[in-house]
Write a structure and sequence with these properties.
The structure holds 2 protein chains of 2 kinds.
Chain A: H1 7-35, H2 39-42, H3 57-65, H4 68-99, H5 105-114, H6 120-133, H7 140-164, H8 168-176, H9 181-210, H10 214-217, H11 226-233, H12 241-261, H13 263-270
Helix pairs in contact in A: 1-12, 3-12, 4-7, 4-9, 7-9, 8-9, 11-12
Chain B: H1 4-35, E1 38-39, E2 49-50, H2 54-61, H3 63-95, H4 101-109, H5 116-127, H6 134-141, H7 149-152, H8 154-178, H9 183-191, H10 196-223, H11 228-232, H12 245-255, H13 259-288
Antiparallel strand pairs in B: 1-2
Helix pairs in contact in B: 1-13, 2-13, 3-8, 3-10, 3-12, 5-8, 8-10, 10-13, 12-13
Classes of the chains: A mainly alpha, B mainly alpha.
Chain lengths: 276, 290
């Protein structure tokens, strides 16, 4: 909506909008500021803003002392791994539902979405027991499988809405020219579908990275990613505010950056194409 | 026009997804149902046997269960109310011609990308902590006693934290929907003398209906399973004041190691989710069919 507004009104709305945005963003900002303070400065009362002792030591210390790098690596492997595995299963499915729809395709899609409605706690116990029995408990492979299955309906839906927008005539033309099914997928479809696949991938890496139910319940130490690490950080370590903030900042920064890049696709992806 | 073989290939390509999702849904559900009628405690593995509906009756008779049900619905309802109302207002504000809109969007969306344990621990330690939190500093600055957020108002505090995480999502979706609203219609209404409130009520709000429906549907799916925030901050306490159904089941399964009882809780959670889903789907089907 581009409507003419008086300069005064424009100034006031700008001021209000920035005020609201800063309030919403403030907790993240305050965490980042705290991560650069010394521990004494971080808990000082009244809170220190400009007078604080600034340091980058917290980051170095968190990175060296705790098992932080291992948790970080686990997060990377689990979120990227589950996303790639999910894409491998979902791309053919979404492709065929978008281009060769059957009578039941809509029902099938709704059914897939309905599996997301199943509360995770309801399947916690069997998964917990099965994972312990077959040796998947506290392993990266186990978490990759669990998170892949959890996000598979979203991956399929996102891809489906993207594939739907590729004009079917192009495929027919390729078929007329004698392209095989395989060639059609590799040379015609894939280049057109890549942007959709890329944003699906991005969004699902974010969802998997931030997942905090399976990662907490299905791990103890070996395969625990950052979400489990932070969840257990606060209690025993007491008042190491600056280090907690530094660890938190490192845990969210990669995703914050990815997220800012993908915010346009985010709306589409998480609303299954209902809002564009 | 698709040939027979293309159709067959297409079916084969859907098969793996359907297969793994079916297994993922049906096997654990069947096991949970089975365990819910069994005596099964990890600490006394030698004892076992059928217990009929005893686990279910235990839940129905436990005061904590009804509190947990109330807390679950209050959490979902509270967060939905806050995020939808504030989300619409903030989206309307940002949609105005303001300077630096791109940067504004970046700031507003940020909380959505903060993983739940981090969000919870920022709020718990840096803001709500009774000695060192920013809120207590502000309260002392005004000469007041610091509020014990997580002790005295645990559920409201959790609702606040979760609302902060989901407000950006709602705002972003409403903003996207607002940007597809034609400005001519609004201008025409304005020229005809419609007040700002009437323009909102008769033009903007109807336009947003679909977006609001979608936000409610998606958030409900995620909110019914809220776990990380409670695990990090209150651990369901004090007492059971902030225990939700998922958290109560988690305590039975992982802490008390009573698999049978937790399984019965899991089945109850499925029933609850289905009831909620039924009403949601009915309400939402009306808006999405077009």
């Amino acid at each position: 909506m581009a409507r003419a507004a008086s300069p005064r009104r424009r100034f006031l709305t700008t001021l209000a909008a920035w005020g609201v945005a800063l309030v919403i963003f403030f907790p993240v900002l305050w965490m980042i500021l705290t991560s650069f303070k010394t521990e004494a400065s971080a808990v000082a009362m009244p809170p220190e803003f400009l007078s604080a002792d600034w340091t980058t030591e917290n980051y170095a210390e968190v990175w060296q002392r705790s098992d932080y790098p291992r948790f970080f690596w686990n997060s990377v492997v689990i979120s990227v791994g589950s996303t790639l595995l999910g894409l491998a299963i979902a791309i053919p499915a979404a492709w065929s539902m978008a281009f060769v729809p059957g009578k039941r395709t809509k029902d099938l899609l709704m059914w897939m979405l309905s599996t997301k409605m199943m509360p995770a706690v309801a399947v916690l116990i069997p998964l917990y027991l099965v994972f312990q029995r077959i040796g998947l408990f506290d392993t990266k492979i186990g978490l990759i499988l669990a998170l892949m299955l959890m996000n598979l309906p979203i991956i399929i839906w996102m891809l489906y809405t993207y594939f739907k927008e590729i004009p079917g005539e192009i495929l027919e033309a390729a078929r007329m020219d004698g392209a095989s099914l395989w060639n059609e997928i590799v040379y015609v479809l894939t280049p057109m579908a890549l942007p959709g696949i890329a944003s699906t991938m991005l969004l699902n890496i974010i969802l998997a990275w931030n997942e905090a139910f399976w990662t907490i319940t299905l791990t103890t130490t070996k395969a625990a990613p950052l979400s489990a690490f932070i969840a257990s950080f606060s209690a025993p370590q007491g008042l190491f505010y600056a280090k907690l903030s530094a660890a938190s900042a490192m845990a969210i920064l990669p995703i914050l950056i990815l997220g800012w890049f993908s915010q346009k696709q985010l709306v589409r992806g998480l609303t299954f194409g209902a809002v564009k | 026009m698709s040939t027979q073989s293309t159709r067959l290939a297409a079916r084969l390509m859907v098969a793996p997804s359907v297969f793994v999702l079916f297994i993922w849904m049906i096997v654990p559900l069947a096991m949970t149902l089975y365990f819910s009628f069994r005596f099964y405690r990890l600490l006394t593995p030698e004892r076992s046997g059928w217990v009929g509906f005893n686990h279910y009756l235990w839940f129905l008779n436990a005061p904590e269960f009804w509190l947990a049900m109330f807390n679950t619905l209050a959490l979902v309802g509270g967060v939905l109310l806050i995020t939808v109302v504030l989300g619409v207002l903030i989206a309307l504000l940002i949609d105005q011609p303001v300077k630096g809109q791109a940067m504004l969007r970046i700031l507003v969306i940020a909380p959505f990308f903060v993983m739940p344990p981090v969000a919870a621990s920022i709020w718990e330690n840096l803001f709500m902590h009774p000695q060192n939190g920013l809120f207590s500093a502000i309260a002392r600055g005004f000469g007041a006693q610091p509020i014990l957020f997580l002790e005295d108002y645990p559920l409201m505090s959790v609702i606040g934290i979760v609302s902060w995480e989901w407000l950006p999502f709602a705002t972003l979706i409403f903003l996207t929907a607002l940007q597809s609203l034609s400005s001519e219609q609004l201008e025409a209404a304005e020229m005809d003398g419609a007040s700002a409130f009437n323009r909102f009520k008769f033009i903007i709000l109807p336009h947003l209906t679909r977006a609001i429906t979608v936000v409610i549907l998606i958030q409900t799916i995620f909110l019914l399973g809220i776990f990380g925030e409670i695990f990090t901050t209150t651990q369901g306490g004090p007492g059971s004041a902030s225990t939700t159904l998922p958290y109560m089941i988690f305590k039975q399964a992982i802490v008390a190691k009573d698999i049978g009882r937790a399984a019965a809780g899991g089945i109850i959670a499925v029933i609850l989710a289905n009831i909620v889903a039924y009403f949601l789907m009915r309400g939402i089907g009306r808006h999405l069919d077009n």
